[in-house]
Amino acid sequence: PFGRLIAWDPVAQKEVWRQEQVSPWNGGTLSTAGNLVFQGTADGRFVAYDARDGKKLWETPTGTGVVAAPITYEVDGRQYVSIAVGWGGVYGLAARATDRKGPGTVYTFAIGGTAKAPEFVAYQLGALVQGVPYDPKLVPDGTALYVSNCVFCHGVPGVDRGGNIPNLGYSEQAVIANLDRFVYSAEMGKKGMPDFTGKLSADEVEKIKAFIQGTADAIRPK
Questions:
Q1: pTM higher than 0.90, yes or no?
Q2: SS3 at position 133
């Protein structure tokens, strides 16, 4: 675990309790007058804790990671808790903490609620890319170029599982072999990817391709 939820006593200036999490990119919290703390997590759970000691009181799956904080409100004397579920943000570009995926969804809960949760679909990672011709001597330079230009969004090829943006280590062979078509593309800018025209040379793109394929080959089970 390398994320955590901590309850802090501001008067005594000390920690009261903590809950360890598998990821640092968890949702915001909701604290209620009834001594409940609600939080959605990166690994796809919506949890209620006792605000006094941190004991977990209730949990339900959400199908995907949660970034937003929940809210509570009352209608005609009935109390509701709602939360917007969806994986994203800067950390969510290249990484995720759940093996399930789902569309952006708003869940609303109430005591006595009877609605059923939707079916959650498992992520399906493809095979590691293979067959892209490359010169192994280009891999070291390609490593530096990839780290400077690509890793923040696409993660380490074949090592990270991908987030909202695909991991290039699991791309089709044709994608990596023709990487220049994506790197030098104003059309990809409509999807949020920068156009690297004038920023990366053709030789540098070849080095990046060598790093992607070389890394996939290095970690492929023998």
A1: no
A2: coil
